[in-house]
Write a structure and sequence with these properties.
With about 550 residues, the protein is α/β, with parallel strands linked by helices. It folds into 3 domains: about 220 residues, P-loop containing nucleotide triphosphate hydrolases (Rossmann fold), CATH 3.40.50; about 210 residues, no CATH class; about 35 residues, no CATH class. The protein contains 18 helices and 15 strands. It has a 6-stranded antiparallel β-sheet, covered by helices on one side. Helix 15 links the parallel strand 12 and strand 13. The longest helix has about 45 residues. The radius of gyration is 36 Å and the shape is extended.
Amino acid sequence: MLQALRVKNLALVDEADVEFSPGLNVITGETGAGKSILIGALSLLLGERADRSLIRTGETTCSVEAVLQVPDPVEINALLREVGVAECEDGAFVIRRTIRESGTGQNFMNDTSVTLQVLKQVGRLLVDMHGPHDHQSLFDVDFQRELLDAFGGLAKQRLAYQSVYEELIALEKRRSQLEGSDENVSAEIDLLTFRVQEIQDAQLDVDEDASLVEEHQVLANAQHIQHHGAHAVDALTDGEGCAFDALAEVQRSLNDLADYWEEARDWSDEARQAAIQVQELGVTIRGALEGLEANPARLAWLDERMALYDKMKRKYGPEVSDVLERLAESATHLEDLQMRGERLMELEQEIVGQRERVMQAGGVLHQARGKAGQKLAKAIMAHLKDLGLEHAAFDAGVTAGEPGPHGLDDVEYGFAPNPGETMRPLRAIASSGEISRIMLACKVVLAELDRIPVLIFDEVDANVGGEMGHIIGVKLGALSHHRQVLCITHLPQVAVHGERHLAVSKDVRGGRTYTQVLALDAESRVDEVARMLGGTRKTKATLQHAEELLGQVR
């Protein structure tokens, strides 16, 4: 969830620190007050390109910072590790961006500098914007397919298909490796023969690799170890004033003390046990030192053996396990090449059979997607009707295609706003109001499946009236039970559904325009809703109407 947004010197905003709550956050204000600046600030944090014209007049830099709390950061942390960014500690995540008049800028995630591309990558997992802003995951056909499969519960069918498809790809790869001119195959056989022989001759072992380093460390420092070990034994048991003699003296004193103080008997026993432990430790160290002696021949062998391990890891590694895996792969491929004719015939038969299995599994997935697509379209169209698009048509199109990693299908959502119009891809829709309402319908239907935690709607109420605004507000409220929702709205019927109401306003001071964002309490919220109902003039009637709208939602 988005906890706070901090903006400094961005357009009309000199400084703003906005806090958000879980659930539905509504943002209202007069036209031109600067509501879109908040969305623009978030867009910058999500990797949108910046223009120096965004910097407030008279300033040289502007900055935007978002503080988020990610309840399940596993996916985010995996991506952060991949790009070298510190993971979210207890789910806390901070994104910061600075833009300078000089044209340079800086981007940070958890105080680590990142590129715009990383901002976009991470942003796609955190925030989804719907409206006139180009950060809409639902336009991505891959994402559409993922949502359809999730809606239809098709994980089992997908895994079954992917398993046989990956086997087909592996077989085709083996065939392509065997094909080629005799000259090329002969050269590859020579190379593989050398590689297999070289690795086999090295007789590598994962456990030996670690033990060599440990033994080398000891032998290379034998003199140093002997010196300090002997000193330790002297201090424990053998030297003058050693710990054992001191503990023996302590024990004698405590035995004398026990004649007068009963508790000292326990202390004497503890001193005796300590003396025994000191003596045993001395014996252990002395025994270990007796078995250690400088051995130049063994040390030279270790150097050679470690050099061989390093050489093999550089050529075929980076780890011993990788080298051994390379050996197994090379040996298998060498055998295939040496029996190329027979292997190719066998592979052709296997590939034909595997393709049949791919087509069969793909057909099962195709049928399941078709049924799921019909159900999804029906569910979304029901919501579109509620949202004032009663004559619109929606389609989760599933068309047959060539076998690929995700099945035999191309999945793309389509939309026709009016009867008789051609169904067009969702990404080709021009009206931002239609886009936002379609997104809202999709999000409500898929709310429990969508993994993106923060949803932002701008102009979702474009060109609709009061009763339709109420319905939009209800659906936004329902959606906010699953995700945090931010909504910029001009309709009071939508605004009253917010769990947190933020009002954006501007004023002129000293010839400069300032935008501010305020979280409204109960009383100021009534005033803002009344303004939305009646314009700049607040009357007794508009105030009463505002209280009624808020009361109905409560």
